[in-house]
């Protein structure tokens, strides 16, 4: 039976509690160091299925600016963030764009859309 | 590598080096019917000692009587008084102090005064401490006396070099930048051509104004009669707000053998700097700033002016003095015929430049019998400075060209119009620092934090180059790159 | 001929736009926002990351998303005109504003009140004195951020970031996402000045080392950066000889602090505070000059744009009331002074009237501390206290004194933070 302990900084609030997460056979069995239940959940999720939002830019054709800032509609698996960013380097959108317009649907088959952060008028 | 100039070029005179000395010589020669070319290895003129020095037009009491330094200094100072208006130079005739703290120092002041009078410096006076502090109230209470030299002034050295180059170019001279000299061809004891990274240029005369590299250039032609050793000086520049607690003119300590000492000095733009120290070097490119040097110049400056507002420092920089092995300027004819030296030009080189230019030109004109150009144009193209105009003139300028209605550098209030003009005028800017030196964009508190990206964009547009091709200053000083992995 | 406005707002970032919106809500009829850049939104337009808006809009937004929210609130208001590509040259004490733009040329505008919302700028290399050469490849993090996020170019390929404030950390992740290698983040303080969340998600996620108590003591490379020398620093932040090591890089990004942009304020002659570097303001964000208000980063540098908007809404409201002649006259002026453990506190004074009002104080702690008591004292009495689990200099603290308590205040106020 493999037991592993990992140290994490909780990011749920400015307290920044230092968490110790115990993992046995690939499952979280204990989170200590947290001062509230949100910390315990964060410790669990950050080990079992860490996720991140992705923000980056894509190229725009015919827009008022050269680049359009974009954001993932919700969180993506942490391990896929760099691949998604790379994928978005290939994307060019045509102005005009509205905030919330889908720039890349179901990115890398992860079920998450990448959308425009802002409007981009055409020129 | 042969560049666009690989077609054989011919000139009466090739001037090597685009600093204050080279450009002043080019401008002087351009008065005559001579085909003149200036070559500069850097992307812009005034890229060496000229861009980093104390910017002082010295009165002329420092150098030993009879030396080139003394003669050229006093004459050069007088010539700047004449050229100021003609070339629209940025000069303030502030006068200068050398301050003494004890009896030994006061003795030195008297020696300097005597020497200055022998050199022909007008108006020297010794003032007591109280009178000095009346003029510069922030100076140390311990100052006993000072030598007052009313003919000294401060100037903007880059602007002076630019003015000389512009005047030369509108009179038919050519300035080749990014053009490094790789050799000098000598035949039967006489120069024949200058080999450059852009191809050879045939030349009857070669003027060596190559700053710290002047010994290398001279050796290319076979003249090893002197060496040039760089002596580094470090500086700290302060925000304009510092002037009220510092000085409005020039304040030197009593000089040592190797240098005029660490001074406190205003600039023509209303800033103040302190420095320089003096370090002997072998590396002709070492412009690094050191912590020890910073400590040294702060300590030195505090002796003169006790309240130095450290928080108002906006930048540090270093310059190299081109100190020759002869101790004096190396001026005039070499043993190689057709090679003229304007070498070992350290302080008071800036002040001496117009006098050196006349000295060199007289030799060439004397030998060739070249006549003055009939179509000689005085001065240089007008240079609108938006922030100095009144409201009516500002409005009129924007109406004429809407680029003047867009402020690019907010610290110094520099418009897009001025930047476009700086790029497109004779011997115009090609680099971000070139724009900065011509217009002051990026020279303020934010040091280009806001305007840097916009200046890059304007350079790219006006020069027809891509953003990654835009350079900061030096030959390979590229600033930004294309993003990686982007699909085309 | 000068046109007459109720309010002229200098700067169209989140502070200026929020102030304009609030001014409209409070009855102002003619407002003009003068923005220097090609569009409104300020520095947020280049902050493409998310994490904005949770307090103010109760929703997590990106920087451009937040800017758009602010802009959308006023874009259809007939009372508000936003003029971009417009630089204010001077503001006079009679509320005349001189500005230029390429289309309209030199403009002289007249208002009843002015709100200063010029934001802040970055500290530069000169301000922190890094020894070494001055090659290409040294940029403030914000300048690089604009090139990467708005113009489409990267500043280099191997990056070192000096300063662990949030902009530095955000840029570490941004450069990693662009395929660059971030070699290290260096911080001269023994603690990071950024949010823990950013340390985790911008550095740890990308295996970027953070060196605390370290700084750059040399830059190598004559034309372009070729590497740096790093030293450990002692508790007075002086480099310790013998601790030097080199890091190879072609780019150095500086994230070494922000300074309120107060050139216009200085020339106008309003009183500036030596610690915040911004105008001294009362609880309505009125400066030392009647009818001139200030809000946002120009007053003091914020870490959350949400607080910028909150503060700007106060300025917008009272500028509007002043322009309309509806502002109650104050009957007492109380100083607010930072005491033990507090570095700065805004507003610096309260001009209270018979109309009682709640007042929010914005403070920065002097040192990071856990379990502290924040107390607000007046005339030797404790007006309020608050126990806080943690304070950090990098995270602004906001406390509201309720209206019934401000009504009773008659003495100067001191705010302090002590261990509980």
TrEMBL record, chain A:
UniProt cross-references to InterPro entries, sorted A to Z: CPE0013-like_sf (IPR036593), DUF1667 (IPR012460)
Family annotation (Gene3D superfamilies): CPE0013-like
Protein known as: CxxC motif-containing protein
Source lineage: Bacteria, Bacillati, Bacillota, Negativicutes, Selenomonadales
Superkingdom assignment: Bacteria
UniProt signal peptide: none
TrEMBL record, chain B:
Domain BFD-like [2Fe-2S]-binding: 407-460
Stored SUPFAM superfamilies: FAD-linked reductases, C-terminal domain, FAD/NAD(P)-binding domain
Domain FAD dependent oxidoreductase positions: 12-362
Gene3D superfamilies: BFD-like [2Fe-2S]-binding domain (1.10.10.1100), D-Amino Acid Oxidase, subunit A, domain 2 (3.30.9.10), FAD/NAD(P)-binding domain (3.50.50.60)
Domain of life of the source: Bacteria
A Pfam family per the record: DAO
Designated name of the protein: Glycerol-3-phosphate dehydrogenase
Lineage of the organism: Bacteria, Bacillati, Bacillota, Negativicutes, Selenomonadales
From TrEMBL, chain C:
Record key words, sorted: Oxidoreductase
Pfam families: Pyr_redox_2 (PF07992)
InterPro entries referenced in this protein's UniProt entry, alphabetically: FAD/NAD-bd_sf, FAD/NAD-binding_dom, Metab_Enz_Cyan_OpOx_G3PDH
Domain FAD/NAD(P)-binding positions: 5-301
Highest taxon of the lineage: Bacteria
GO molecular function: oxidoreductase activity
Record's protein name: Thioredoxin reductase
């Amino acid at each position: 039976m493999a037991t592993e302990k990992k140290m994490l900084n909780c990011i749920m609030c400015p307290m920044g509690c230092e968490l110790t997460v115990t993992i046995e056979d690939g499952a979280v069995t204990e989170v200590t160091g947290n001062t509230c239940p949100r910390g315990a959940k964060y410790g669990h999720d950050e080990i079992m299925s860490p996720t991140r939002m992705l923000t980056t830019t894509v190229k725009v054709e015919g827009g008022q600016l050269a680049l359009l800032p974009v954001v993932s509609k919700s969180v993506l698996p942490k391990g896929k963030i760099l691949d998604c960013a790379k994928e978005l380097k290939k994307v060019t959108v045509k102005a005009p764009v509205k905030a919330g317009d889908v720039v890349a649907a179901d990115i890398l088959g992860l079920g998450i859309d990448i959308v425009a952060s802002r409007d981009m008028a055409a020129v | 590598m042969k560049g666009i100039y690989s077609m054989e070029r011919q000139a009466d005179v090739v001037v090597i080096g685009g600093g204050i000395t080279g450009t002043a010589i080019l401008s002087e020669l351009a008065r005559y019917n001579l085909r003149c070319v200036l070559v500069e290895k850097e992307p812009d003129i005034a890229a060496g000692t000229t861009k980093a020095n104390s910017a002082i037009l010295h009165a002329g009491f420092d150098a030993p009587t009879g030396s080139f330094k003394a003669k050229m200094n006093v004459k050069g100072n007088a010539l700047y008084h004449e050229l100021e208006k003609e070339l629209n130079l940025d000069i303030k005739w502030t006068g200068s102090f050398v301050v003494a703290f004890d009896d030994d120092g006061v003795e030195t002041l008297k020696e300097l005064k005597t020497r200055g009078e022998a050199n022909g410096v007008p108006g020297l006076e010794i003032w007591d401490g109280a009178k000095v502090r009346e003029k510069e109230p922030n100076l140390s209470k311990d100052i006993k006396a000072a030598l007052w030299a009313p003919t000294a002034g401060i100037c903007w050295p880059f602007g002076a070099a630019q003015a000389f180059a512009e005047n030369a170019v509108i009179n038919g001279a050519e300035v080749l930048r990014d053009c490094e000299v790789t050799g000098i061809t000598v035949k039967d004891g006489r120069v024949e051509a200058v080999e450059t990274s852009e191809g050879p240029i045939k030349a009857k005369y070669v003027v060596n104004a190559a700053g710290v590299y002047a010994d290398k250039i001279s050796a290319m032609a076979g003249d090893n009669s002197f060496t040039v050793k760089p002596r580094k000086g470090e500086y700290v520049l302060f925000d304009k707000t510092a002037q009220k607690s510092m000085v409005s003119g020039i304040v030197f300590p009593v000089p040592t053998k190797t240098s005029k000492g660490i001074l406190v000095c205003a600039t023509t733009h209303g800033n103040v700097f302190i420095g320089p120290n003096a370090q002997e070097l072998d590396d002709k490119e070492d412009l690094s700033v050191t912590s020890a040097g910073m400590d040294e110049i702060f300590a030195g400056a505090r002796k003169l002016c006790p309240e130095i507002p450290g928080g108002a420092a906006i930048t540090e920089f270093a310059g190299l003095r081109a100190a020759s092995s002869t101790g004096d300027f190396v001026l005039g004819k070499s043993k190689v015929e057709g090679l003229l030296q304007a070498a070992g030009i350290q302080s008071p080189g800036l002040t001496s430049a117009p006098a050196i230019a006349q000295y060199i030109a007289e030799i060439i004109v004397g030998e060739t019998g070249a006549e003055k150009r009939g179509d000689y144009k005085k001065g240089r193209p007008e240079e609108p400075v938006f922030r100095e105009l009144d409201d009516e003139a500002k409005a009129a300028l924007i109406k004429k060209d809407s680029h003047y209605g867009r402020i690019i550098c907010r610290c110094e209030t520099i418009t897009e119009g001025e930047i476009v003009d700086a790029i497109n005028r004779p011997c115009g800017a090609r680099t971000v620092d070139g724009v900065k030196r011509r217009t002051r964009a990026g020279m303020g508190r934010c040091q280009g934090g806001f305007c840097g990206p916009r200046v890059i964009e304007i350079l790219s547009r006006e020069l027809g180059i891509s953003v990654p091709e835009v350079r900061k200053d030096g030959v390979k000083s590229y600033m930004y790159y294309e993003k990686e992995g982007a699909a085309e | 001929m000068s046109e007459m406005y109720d309010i002229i707002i200098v700067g169209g970032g989140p502070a200026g736009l929020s102030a304009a919106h609030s001014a409209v809500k409070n009855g102002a009829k003619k407002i003009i926002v003068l923005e220097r850049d090609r569009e409104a939104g300020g520095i947020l337009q280049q902050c493409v990351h998310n994490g904005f808006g949770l307090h103010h809009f109760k929703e997590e937004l990106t920087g451009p998303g937040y800017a758009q929210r602010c802009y959308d609130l006023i874009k259809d208001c007939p009372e508000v005109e936003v003029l971009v590509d417009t630089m204010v040259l001077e503001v006079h004490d009679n509320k005349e504003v001189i500005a230029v733009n390429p289309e309209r040329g030199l403009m002289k505008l007249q208002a009843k009140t002015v709100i200063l919302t010029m934001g802040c700028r970055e500290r530069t290399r000169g301000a922190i004195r890094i020894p070494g050469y001055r090659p290409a490849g040294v940029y403030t993090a914000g300048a690089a951020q604009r090139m990467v996020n708005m113009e489409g170019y990267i500043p280099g390929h191997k990056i070192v970031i000096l300063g662990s404030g949030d902009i530095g950390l955000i840029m570490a992740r941004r450069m990693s996402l662009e395929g660059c290698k971030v070699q290290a983040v260096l911080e001269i303080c023994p603690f990071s000045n950024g949010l823990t969340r950013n340390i985790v998600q911008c550095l740890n996620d990308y295996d970027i080392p953070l060196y605390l108590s370290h700084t750059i003591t040399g830059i190598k490379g004559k034309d372009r950066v070729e590497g740096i020398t790093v030293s450990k620093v002692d508790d007075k932040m002086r480099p310790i000889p013998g601790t030097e090591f080199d890091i190879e890089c072609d780019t150095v990004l500086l994230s070494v602090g922000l300074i309120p942009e107060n050139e216009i304020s200085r020339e106008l002659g309003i009183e500036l505070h030596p610690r915040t570097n911004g105008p001294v303001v009362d609880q309505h964000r009125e400066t030392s000059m009647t009818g001139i208000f200030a809000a946002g980063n120009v007053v003091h540098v914020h870490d959350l744009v949400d607080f910028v908007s909150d503060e700007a809404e106060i300025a917008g409201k009272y500028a509007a009331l002043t322009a309309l002649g509806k502002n109650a006259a104050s009957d007492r002026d109380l100083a607010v002074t930072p005491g033990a453990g507090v570095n700065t506190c805004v507003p610096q004074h309260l001009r209270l009237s018979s109309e009682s009002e709640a007042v929010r104080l914005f403070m920065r702690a002097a040192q990071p501390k856990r379990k502290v008591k924040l107390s607000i004292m007046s005339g030797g009495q404790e007006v309020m206290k608050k126990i806080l689990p943690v304070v950090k200099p990098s995270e602004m603290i906001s406390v509201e004194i309720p209206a019934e308590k401000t009504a009773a205040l008659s003495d100067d106020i001191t705010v302090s933070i002590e261990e509980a």
